[in-house]
Structure to design on (662 residues):
C-alpha cells in the first residue's frame, strides 16, 4: 500500500494584504467601531467591563464563603454543641474550642455540651468551608458575605465566641432556616444520654 | 500700523499658540491617548484621579445648585428671544424694532454669555458634587497628577554619561516641536480697524492688517521641515549621551529613520506646492479658501496619504516607533531618562502630534476655511447671514482647532490599531515605496499642470462649490 500524502498549500497572502493599506483600513474600522460603541453608548449597552471599585462592587456568587459566624438558638445561645467536628476537619487548624458541661438540672445537661471558648484565627483560615460541611448542628456558617475588616494588629483577627455570634448572615438574621428541637420541647424525640434509642 | 500694536499682537499670538499647544493640547493628549486606547480595548482607562473637597465646601456648592439652574433658565430664555429678533433682522434685512441692531446684538451676547457661564457652572458643579465630594472630571486630572509626579521624581543621571548632552537632549527635542507653530496660520487676516464691522466680501481693506500667525515667513513650510529635522539631533545625542547600549541603538535608529523620512516628507508635498504655487502656509490656506480643499484633487489625496504615513514615521510613533521599541530596546533612547527630562520628550512628542494635525489640515483640508463662510458671513445656497469681522475670525479659529482635534483623534486611532513594523520593512517602505511613488506623483502633477488639465479641474470644482 502506498502512502498517500495530502499536500496542504501554505496560505499565501492576497494582493490586498500585501498592499497593506486596505487591511490597515479594515483594522482601523474595527478599532473605530469599538471606540464609538464604548464611548457613545450608555453603560449597560457598551462592552466596558471595568468596575469602578469603591463606588461599584461586583456581586459575589450565592455561595461565596465570607467571614464565619456562629448561629444562635432562639434564646440567643450558640447552636454549637462543642462536638469538635469543625476543628477536627479544619485543614489549617485555626479553630480552637474548649467544651464545657451545662449545670446539673439544665434540660440540656447530660444531653449536649457548649463551647466555653470558641476562637477562629481568621488569618490562618484558608476559607475552604470544611468546618461548615463538618458541622452536624448547622452551628457554624460562612454565609455572611463579608470580607474580613482590615486591621493593624494580629490579635484583632482572633475572633472569639461573642464576636462570631454577633455577625449576622447575609439575610440579616442570627438564626438559620433549620429548626432546632430543644430538650423539653414537645417536638423533641427524647433521646439523651440516659434514654437511648 | 504702529509698533506698539505690532509688538502687542505678536506677544498675544505667541501666548495663544503656547496656550493651545503646551497648555491645552499636550496635557489633554496624554489623557486622551490612554483613555482612547482603553475605550478601544473595552476598558475604562484613567478616570480615578480626584481632588477631595472638604464636606463644608460640598454643602456650600450644593446650596448654589438651584439658584444657578434658575438663573440659567431665565437668561437662556431672554437670550433666545433676542436671537429670534436678530435672526429676523438678518433674514429680512430691516430693523422694525425701536432699538438699534447693535444694542440688540450686545444684549444677546450679554445674556447668552451669562446663560452659558451659568450652564457651565451648573454642569461643572454637578460633576463636582458627587456624593463623596470628589472632583474627577472624567480623569482629566491625571495629566496634572502626571506632571506633579514628573516634577518630584528623582532626576537620575547615569554616572558615566555625558552630563551636558544628557541634559541638552530633551530640550533639543522639545523646543523645535513648539517652534514649528511659529508659521502656522490659525485664521485669515485680522483687520484691526474694522474688528466689529461687517467687511465687504471682496476687495482691499484699509487700515492695520494683522496676519493670524506668529511669523509670516516666505519659506513657510520649509521652515517647519528645517525645524523638525533639528529634533533628530535631540534623539540622537540623548541616545549617545546615556552611556547605555540600548539607548545608543535607539538613538541610531531614530537618526536613520528620521533622516530617511525627512526626504519623503518633503517630496510628498511637492505636488501641493505646485498646485498652490507658494510655500507660505497662509497663501495655501487662502488658495483653498478661494478654490477648493486640496483633498478633493485625487493626486493631492494620494500625496496626503503618503505625507501622513511619512509624518507619523517622522514623529516616531506607532507603527514606526522602532527607536523606542520597548520589546527589543527596553525604551530606546528614552531608557535612562526619568522625571521632567522624560516629561520633555513626552511633551515634545505630543506637540509634534498636534503640529502634524495642523500641517495636514492646512495643506489638504483648507486650514481655517469653513464651508460657506466668507469674509462677511455665511452664504448657504442663496441664504446669507451677515457676521461681524471678529465673529468670522473666531469661527475660523475654532474650526481650525476642530480640524486639528479630528486629526489628533485619527492619529491616536492609528497608534492603537497598527502593529509595529520591522526595521527593514520601515526602510523598504521609505526608499522603495514612498520615495518612487512620490516622484511619480510629482511627474503626474507636472503633466497635469502642463496639459492644462489642472486648471480645468479646479474650474470644475469651483463651479460645484
Amino acid at each position: 500500500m502506498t502512502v498517500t500524502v495530502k499536500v496542504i498549500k501554505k496560505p499565501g497572502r492576497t494582493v490586498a494584504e500585501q498592499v497593506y493599506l486596505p487591511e490597515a483600513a479594515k483594522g482601523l474600522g474595527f478599532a473605530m467601531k469599538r471606540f464609538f460603541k464604548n464611548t457613545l453608548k450608555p453603560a449597560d449597552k457598551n462592552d466596558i467591563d471595568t468596575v469602578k471599585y469603591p463606588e461599584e462592587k461586583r456581586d459575589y456568587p450565592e455561595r461565596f464563603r465570607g467571614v464565619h459566624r456562629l448561629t444562635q438558638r432562639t434564646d440567643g445561645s450558640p447552636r454549637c454543641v462543642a462536638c469538635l467536628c469543625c476543628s477536627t476537619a479544619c485543614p489549617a487548624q485555626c479553630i480552637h474550642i474548649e467544651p464545657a458541661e451545662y449545670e446539673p438540672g439544665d434540660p440540656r445537661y447530660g444531653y449536649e455540651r457548649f463551647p466555653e471558648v470558641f476562637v477562629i484565627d481568621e488569618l490562618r483560615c484558608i476559607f475552604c468551608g470544611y468546618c461548615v460541611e463538618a458541622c452536624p448542628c448547622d452551628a457554624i456558617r460562612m454565609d455572611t458575605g463579608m470580607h474580613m475588616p482590615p486591621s493593624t494588629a494580629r490579635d484583632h483577627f482572633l475572633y472569639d465566641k461573642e464576636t462570631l455570634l454577633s455577625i449576622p448572615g447575609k439575610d440579616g438574621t442570627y438564626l438559620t432556616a433549620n429548626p432546632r428541637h430543644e430538650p423539653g420541647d414537645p417536638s423533641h424525640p427524647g433521646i439523651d444520654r440516659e434514654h437511648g434509642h | 500700523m504702529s509698533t506698539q500694536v505690532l509688538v502687542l499682537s505678536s506677544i498675544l499670538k505667541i501666548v495663544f499658540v503656547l496656550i493651545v499647544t503646551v497648555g491645552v493640547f499636550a496635557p489633554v493628549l496624554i489623557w486622551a491617548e490612554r483613555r482612547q486606547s482603553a475605550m478601544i480595548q473595552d476598558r475604562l482607562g484613567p478616570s480615578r484621579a480626584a481632588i477631595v473637597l472638604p464636606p463644608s465646601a460640598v454643602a456650600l456648592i450644593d446650596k448654589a445648585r438651584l439658584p444657578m439652574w434658575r438663573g440659567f433658565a431665565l437668561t437662556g430664555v431672554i437670550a433666545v428671544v433676542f436671537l429670534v429678533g436678530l435672526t429676523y433682522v438678518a433674514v429680512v434685512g430691516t430693523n422694525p424694532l425701536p432699538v438699534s441692531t447693535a444694542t440688540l446684538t450686545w444684549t444677546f451676547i450679554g445674556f447668552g454669555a451669562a446663560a452659558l457661564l451659568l450652564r457651565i457652572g451648573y454642569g461643572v458643579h454637578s460633576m463636582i458634587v458627587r456624593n463623596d465630594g470628589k472632583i474627577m472630571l472624567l480623569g482629566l486630572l491625571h495629566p496634572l497628577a502626571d506632571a506633579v509626579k514628573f516634577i518630584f521624581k528623582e532626576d537620575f543621571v547615569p554616572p558615566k554619561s555625558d552630563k551636558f548632552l544628557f541634559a541638552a537632549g530633551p530640550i533639543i527635542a522639545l523646543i523645535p516641536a513648539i517652534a514649528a507653530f511659529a508659521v502656522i496660520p490659525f485664521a485669515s487676516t485680522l483687520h484691526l480697524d474694522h474688528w466689529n464691522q461687517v467687511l465687504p466680501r471682496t476687495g482691499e481693506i484699509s487700515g492695520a492688517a494683522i496676519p493670524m500667525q506668529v511669523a509670516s515667513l516666505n519659506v513657510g513650510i520649509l521652515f517647519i521641515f528645517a525645524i523638525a529635522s533639528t529634533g533628530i539631533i535631540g534623539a540622537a545625542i540623548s541616545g549617545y549621551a546615556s552611556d547605555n547600549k540600548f539607548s545608543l541603538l535607539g538613538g541610531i535608529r531614530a537618526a536613520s529613520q528620521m533622516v530617511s523620512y525627512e526626504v519623503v516628507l518633503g517630496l510628498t508635498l511637492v505636488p501641493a506646492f505646485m498646485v498652490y504655487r507658494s510655500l507660505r502656509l497662509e497663501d495655501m490656506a487662502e488658495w483653498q479658501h478661494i478654490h477648493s480643499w486640496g483633498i478633493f484633487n485625487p493626486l493631492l489625496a494620494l500625496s496626503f496619504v503618503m505625507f501622513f504615513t511619512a509624518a507619523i514615521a517622522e514623529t516616531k510613533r506607532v507603527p514606526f516607533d522602532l527607536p523606542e521599541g520597548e520589546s527589543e530596546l527596553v525604551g530606546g533612547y528614552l531608557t535612562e531618562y526619568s522625571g521632567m527630562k522624560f516629561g520633555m520628550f513626552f511633551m515634545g512628542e505630543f506637540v509634534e502630534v498636534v503640529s502634524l494635525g495642523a500641517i495636514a489640515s492646512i495643506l489638504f483640508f483648507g486650514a481655517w476655511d469653513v464651508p460657506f463662510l466668507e469674509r462677511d458671513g455665511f452664504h448657504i445656497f442663496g441664504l446669507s447671514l451677515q457676521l461681524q469681522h471678529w465673529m468670522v475670525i473666531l469661527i475660523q479659529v475654532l474650526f481650525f482647532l476642530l480640524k486639528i482635534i479630528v486629526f489628533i483623534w485619527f492619529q491616536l486611532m492609528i497608534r492603537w490599531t497598527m502593529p509595529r513594523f520591522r526595521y527593514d520593512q520601515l526602510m523598504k517602505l521609505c526608499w522603495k515605496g514612498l520615495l518612487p511613488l512620490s516622484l511619480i506623483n510629482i511627474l503626474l502633477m507636472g503633466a497635469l499642470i502642463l496639459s492644462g488639465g489642472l486648471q480645468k479641474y479646479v474650474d470644475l470644482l469651483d463651479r460645484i462649490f
Notes: The longest helix of chain B spans residues 3-40. Residues 276 and 284 of chain B are 6 Å apart (CA to CA). Chain B touches chain A at residues 36, 39-44, 47-48, 305, 413-414, 416-418 (CB under 8 Å). The mean pLDDT of chain B is 83.
